[in-house]
Amino acid sequence: MVFTQVDKFSTKLSDKGDEKEGEQISHENVSEVIPELKEPPMYQVVLLNDDYTPMDYVVEILESFFSKSREEATKIMLAIHHDGKGICGQYRNEIAEMKVLQVNQHAKLNDHPLMAIMEQL
Ligand code: TYC
Fold first, then answer.
1. How many angstroms is it from 68 CA to the middle of ligand 1?
2. Structure pTM?
3. Could you give all domains of the chain from N- to C-terminal order, each with its CATH number?
4. CA of 113 to the centre of ligand 1 (A)
């Protein structure tokens, strides 16, 4: 049985061949090992500054949706306030999308213009 692992994301497609262990594998067999899709991209969730959302509310959002400590959340909130935007965390697509939706929905329900977006890394 031929099992050629080109990298950890490769898959064996054929059982053809009966090389012994350590035996060189022919090009014919190597071509049967097709790499699977690349690792999915990561996204950063970014909070945008505005003139109206209370600072305390932003700190609460960072604590509850992004698991930041009070101290860390305060630093991030102030960085956003000064720089216009700031990174809250990095996630895979589905998780980043969910965070953005949850934050924007929460802000809307509480009548704040706070907005989260996601950016592919
Ligand atoms: N700029 C806001 C204020 O002065 C505070 C704020 C910080 C708003 C971060 C949004 O993502 C934000 N009240």
1. 17
2. 0.74
3. 1-37 (no CATH), 42-120 (3.30.1390.10)
4. 10
